[in-house]
Amino acid sequence: MPIFPAPDGTGLAYRVSGSGSAPPVVCLPGGPMRAGAYLGDLGGLTARRRTAVLDLRGTGESEEPGDRGTYRCDRQVEDVEALRKHLGLERFDLLGHSAGASLAVRYAARYPDRLRRLALITPSPRAVGFELTVAERRRIVARRAGAPWFATAAAAYEAIAAKTATGADWAALAPLYYGRWDAAARRHQAAEAGQRNGAAARIYNSAGAFEPEVTRAALGAVAAPVLVLAGDLDWIVSPAVAADFAALFPDGRVVVLPGVAHYPWVDDAAAFVAAVDGFLA
After folding, report:
1. Which residues contact 110 (CB under 8 A, 6 or more apart)?
2. By three-state DSSP, how is residue 76 classified?
3. Which is nearest to 96 in space by CA: 59, 70, 123?
4. d(CA 160, CA 235)
5. Which of 33, 66, 128, 248 gives 20 to 30 Å between its CA and that of 241?
6. Phi/psi at 225 (nearest 5 deg)?
7. pLDDT tens for each residue of 93-132
């Protein structure tokens, strides 16, 4: 994988996929702090678009920084800007998934004129201070009633809502991140343990990482078209929250995919690629 230096000298890796002469779509992984390998070929998007998937510092093939405080989301914005410069892009398309969308939003707030298009895929709403209520999450979870794993997952969510969750409770929630808890979903989820930097993840969203009011105001200066893609089964960002998110941008639009949860390219690759490729065109 190619390596380039972050402003503090940390070596950062990225993977280019796809073919063609068009500039690549820069992709920021979530997790938080999960190696970009989990994005795979984004459901086949790389057959239509070149992509440059960044391994955030301390993940995948990227080096660990000397200052662990630089794992914080806001402190990685300049890593994205360094990649833009390294790729020689004046304006570019940026895609962020989940917690990676928080980094994409922080970048957009700081460098609005650098973006050609911005795609936020099932984005964490932390960066803009939005949050699903417990009642709303319960309604989404309840839509999975009847699945053989539902009772265990629902009980685990109640422990999380009560702030008494254990590691076992979080593990029991795994099926809720997917529209179908089938073999493909299980394989995708099983890879997470070897891809995620847990210590860095705890710093990524830590105190000071976000300034929601400031960010919401700054997003009003993002002239680029923005896509917020949500799944109707996603308990992280509901369609309603996704719509509020999109409304922060002058040219924001929301697409909700049915039967899809937090990993839309795993749940419905064809619908995901059609929505994202159509937006980027």
Report:
1. 77, 81, 218
2. helix
3. 123
4. 13
5. 33
6. -60, 140
7. 999 999 999 999 999 999 999 999 999 999 999 999 999 9
Q: List the domain boundaries for the chain.
A: 3-129+192-280
Query: In the numeric block, which tokens belong to residue 80?
Result: 């994205």
CA 137 to each of CA 22, 161, 162, 227: distance values in angstroms, whole numbers, following the listed order: 40, 9, 13, 23
Q: According to the model, what pLDDT value does residue 19 have?
A: 81
State pTM to two decimals: 0.97
Strand 25-28, strand 11-17: pairing: unpaired
Domain at 3-129+192-280, CATH homologous superfamily: Alpha/Beta hydrolase fold, catalytic domain (3.40.50.1820)
Structure confidence by residue, pLDDT tens digits, 170-196: 999 999 999 999 999 999 999 999 999
Strands 51-55 and 11-17: antiparallel
User: What letter represents residue 91's amino acid?
Assistant: R
